[in-house]
Write a structure and sequence with these properties.
By secondary structure, the chain is an alpha/beta fold. It folds into 2 domains: 1-83, Rossmann fold (3-Layer(aba) Sandwich); 87-233, P-loop containing nucleotide triphosphate hydrolases (Rossmann fold, 3-Layer(aba) Sandwich), CATH 3.40.50.300. 39% of the residues lie in helices and 21% in strands. Strand 3 (55-58), helix 3 (64-75) and strand 4 form a beta-alpha-beta unit. Helix 3 packs across helix 5.
Amino acid sequence: YAALRRIYSPRKKIITIEDPVEYRLHGVNQIHVNPKIGLSFASGLRHIVRHDPDIIMVGEIRDQETANIAINAALTGHLVFSTLHTNDASGAVTRLQDMGVEPYLIASSLEGVLAQRLLRRVCAECREEYRPSAEWLATIHRELDIHPPETLARGTGCSACRYTGYAGRTALYEVLPLNEHIRSLIIRRASAGEIKREATLHGMSTMRQDGWRKVIAGETTIEEVLAVTQIEE
């Protein structure tokens, strides 16, 4: 939704197929999936393509049929947004392969992947500074390649946060733009780990690294980052 809002223009024809439509967007034609009348993601997407929109958003790619239609739409000049359930950005590539999409089609059509995870934010009412162990500071330094401060933030627990030490949420992000190196790996069916390592060599910041930055900024805790991210390979 944020991406569609950002690129919206009255001159652009934008159509979505969703299950359900969670937010109404001004100037966007949004279609709700309805299995009772045979309107699935795949069938809805076929109808959308016939209307030749500039931008298409598919709420979720759940099967090979939907994936192939979305990819063919992208290859014929449409900008296509969608979502997949994966652990991280590179996992989206292997997820599409697992659905039966040919690697050369993925490499030809995919422009980038944004992965995100929510985690809890330190409560502002009971926030305190503390000194983490030297081992954790060394881990952050090793994975982020910057020296963290000697003190970090945590919540002690209060009535405002129901004694959890957390109130509200923030998000971790990981953006995987595709370049020729990544496309070559996709074509030869490289693993998600190989794709991730290549992407980090070309400057991609992982969700774990984004988490450490938010720990240093005092937004969340080491424990939260560990709970929602994978160990970096």
